Amino acid sequence: xxxxxxxxxxxxxxxxxxxxxxxxxxxxxxxxxxxxxxxxxxxxxxxxxxxxxxxxxxxxxxxxxxxxxxxxxxxxxxxxxxxxxxxxxxxxxxxxxxxxxxxxxxxxxxxxxxxxxxxxxxxxxxxxxxxxxxxxxxxxxxxxxxxxxxxxxxxxxxxxxxxxxxxxxxxxxxxxxxxxxxxxxxxxxxxxxxxxxxxxxxxxxxxxxxxxxxxxxxxxxxxxxxxxxxxxxxxxxxxxxxxxxxxxxxxxxxxxxxxxxxxxxxxxxxxxxxxxxxxxxxxxxxxxxxxxxxxxxxxxxxxxxxxxxxxxxxxxxxxxxxxxxxxxxxxxxxxxxxxxxxxxxxxxxxxxxxxxxxxxxxxxxxxxxxxxxxxxxxxxxxxxxxxxxxxxxxxxxxxxxxxxxxxxxxxxxxxxxxxxxxxxxx
Length: 426
Description:
Elements: E1 17-21, H1 33-39, E2 43-49, H2 51-61, E3 71-75, H3 78-81, H4 87-101, E4 107-112, H5 114-118, H6 123-133, E5 139-144, H7 154-163, E6 177-181, H8 186-198, E7 204-207, E8 222-226, H9 232-240, E9 244-245, H10 253-267, H11 272-297, E10 301-304, H12 311-322, E11 325-331, H13 340-345, E12 352-356, H14 358-368, E13 372-375, H15 377-385, E14 390-392, H16 395-398, H17 407-425
Parallel strand pairs: 1-12, 2-3, 2-4, 4-5, 6-7, 6-8, 8-9, 10-11, 10-13, 11-12, 13-14
Helix pairs in contact: 7-9, 10-11, 11-17
């Protein structure tokens, strides 16, 4: 098993946080479409935005020209911006053509962008209007993927929050049910499903579902576990429907996954013997796999720029299971309630920062000269040119990293940049 440092204090539960409000360097919420369109297999994401929005999505997704993707952009052009065309009429025409051509679409998201918000295009009203028009064929919802005030993972949060009101109501007296909230790769979802089944725990549903028609019933009988730390609005919407959140660390690494599963087992009265029987083989296998990475990372320093809101769970994993030194852990937004268990597990004295003033943070990073810097694409190349090893933060969102079977893969994402730097220097 991997060595896990025992908790001797409250960690960073009450630690001071450096709050910065300056220039930020981050992708916008439209980026979430890249993994969401793969997850909900009969949904389509129509961005109402500019050509810049279209280029962002196309380049991020890497879709070849002959592919049939389930996302597109309704371009707002100069005539729309000048008020010479009725944007709603144009949007209705695009949606009609899309749903006629793609009858397999059961759920259509109208995704707002910076341009659509600037011209005050009311996509909520448009979604209601189009839902009535196409009621027999598809549901039409909307959410904002604008990057004006948000970080890129909040696109998923906004999308899932828009789905919550569409879920059916659980009948009175329905048995307790567990809901896993957050988009996970199908392989990870299947792994967790098997684990819960072996624990004798169920029924277990996942949100978002793979098909739009499989939204889980919601009510006071539902307990939910967050799989991602950036789902504040979704969690609030679920709680307003009567569901109750199970407090737990996030399922990253062996320790986080075990504690996450234990929260569900405790809530559903799974016996200690059955819980241990279900998780032991996977836990031991993951611990052995991590051992090959530990000697490469122990003692190495790491600096997190704020990007995805995954930073605090990742810092906990790297510190406690791989022995890395945390120079600074920056996050776009620190939700103390959802991250309470994670904060308790961070080493006491860890420097935490929320928000960003990118120039000041760059100065701190250069002064610290960490062995590894986790940051966005816009900062990575300049820092590499200055001699710092970097890890693209966005890769940690695009790659399956949750659960026991992915623990070693997650560690590998942090060892490769160090190996690359060593090779270049040699």
